[in-house]
Amino acid sequence: MSTQRPSPFVFPRAWAWRASPNFNTRPSGTAISGIVLHADASSTVASSMDWIRRSESKVSYHILIGRRGDIYALVRPEHRAWHAGASSWDGVADCNDYTVGVCLSNRNDGTETYPIAQRQAAMDVCAALCQHYHIPATRITSHAHVATPAGRKTDPKGLDLLEFITGVAHRLEHLRS
């Protein structure tokens, strides 16, 4: 992992700041090298936000995206949000150390779909993060993929990850041209 730190990510004004207390510092010298997608298993973004902003929950994401595409910034990406729990990606443990957690508000029951506005906003968010931190779109994954032991998490259930990554890659091509 690289020790060079980019400048802090600046949240666009359109993203609503809703600070969560559930974060700490990233290990010294750890670069952000991936994005983990989540679903909050909640019926409303308000109930999810309430839980994330309580210190006793000991859980957060960097960014939460509502069903209508509304974007909430909860933890600055340079900090370590508590989103992945016990996890490993490509043999590297503790994904919280080196990833950004992006959550889509969804019941995660496999029945509720992810509305177009929400998917579009999530792709835009991930493209902005990828561009800033020089993360290839192929370094976007799901909580289900990184959670240990395998099968411990299922989110974001029903999201077509390949389609999502392709959408982010297309956005990155446009940002770079």
C-alpha geometry: globular
Task: Please state the CA-atom Rg, rounded to the nearest Å.
Answer: 15 Å
What's the CATH H-level homologous superfamily? Peptidoglycan recognition protein-like
Q: Indicate the percent of residues in helices.
A: 25-40%
Order of helices and strands: EEEHEEEEEEHEHH
| Mean pLDDT level | 95
The tally of domains stands at 1
- Low-confidence sequence ranges: none
Annotated CATH topology: Lysozyme-like
CATH uppermost class: Alpha Beta
Q: What is the spatial order of strands in the main beta sheet?
A: 1-5-4-9-3-10
Q: Can you count the beta strands?
A: 10
**What summary fits the major beta sheet?**
6 strands, mixed
Report the total helices: 4
CATH architecture: 3-Layer(aba) Sandwich
Distance between the termini: 27 Å
Give the gist of this structure.
The chain is an alpha/beta fold. The protein has helices spanning 45-52, 116-133, 143-146, 161-176; strands spanning 16-17, 23-25, 34-39, 63-65, 71-73, 79-81, 88-89, 92-93, 99-104, 140-142.
Any key phrases for this structure?
alpha/beta, 10 strands, 4 helices, 177 residues, two-stranded antiparallel sheet, Lysozyme-like, 6-stranded mixed sheet, single chain
What features would you describe in this structure?
There is one protein chain. With 177 residues, the protein is an alpha/beta fold. It has a single domain, classed as Peptidoglycan recognition protein-like (Lysozyme-like), CATH 3.40.80.10. The chain contains four helices and ten strands, in the order βββαββββββαβαα. The protein has helices spanning 45-52, 116-133, 143-146, 161-176, and strands at residues 16-17, 23-25, 34-39, 63-65, 71-73, 79-81, 88-89, 92-93, 99-104, 140-142. The chain has a six-stranded mixed sheet. A hairpin with a 5-residue loop joins β4 and β5. The longest helix is centred in the C-terminal third of the chain and has 18 residues, at 116-133.
